[in-house]
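name: query_chain
kind: protein
chains: 1
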Amino acid sequence: MIRALYTAASGMNAQQANIDTVAHNLANVNTSGFKKSRIEFEDLVYQQTKVAGTPNSQEAEAPIGLEAGLGARAVATARNFSVGNLRSTSSPLDIAIEGQGFLQVTLPGGETGYTRAGNLHLSGQGQIVTNEGLQLKPGITIPAGATSVSISKDGIVSAVVAGQAPQQVGTIELANFQNPAGLEARGGNIFVATTASGNATNGLPGADGTGTLVQGFLEDSNVSVVEEMVNMILGQRAYEANSRVIRAADEMLQQVNNLSR
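structure:
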């Protein structure tokens, strides 16, 4: 009965992590380029009272054993990198990636970050930067006095200055990974590479399996509110079921304590 208390408590802890992940997904339902996550579980060790194959006599052995599981735990957060819906914004610096790939930015420490959020802006020096002021990599600077900016589907950035012909000012490159789910989320729509994700493979949009760019659009979060509400209900019911096991085990212990009265 004591074992049942700890086993059910491990289930409650695991479902708490599940609900936390669902809450994070729902909180970011309107975050551009956000990718939903899910918790993965595994069962804990087993306490074996009798091992399968134990001899019962000189001529027979137990076909099955006797064991008791000791609960469950959350072991991983799997991120889903499916493409979200594209939403028109009519802003010339908003870009969406239609397909696989990540925009590259330079982080404050010089490290390279990767993002799917294409809501870009101009800095005071004319550089194209993210909402957090992180510069695209390779850097692109729009000339002073530019009246319009165009971004082709293969990443060529052109600007028109009054009285001059359009001029190419840079090219946006995309990065791909062998295992995007292994990227480390840093917050602010930024991921960084890890040994699990593998090294980035850089290339032009539309080449080597990377997606193409769409100007004037943003990629919405791939979170489904209905799906997350269902996951929340399932997690809540599992949490309640484990709490009832604790209550039942406590009542059994109470009966044992009352035997001496």
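note: The chain has two domains: 2-81+223-260, 86-219.
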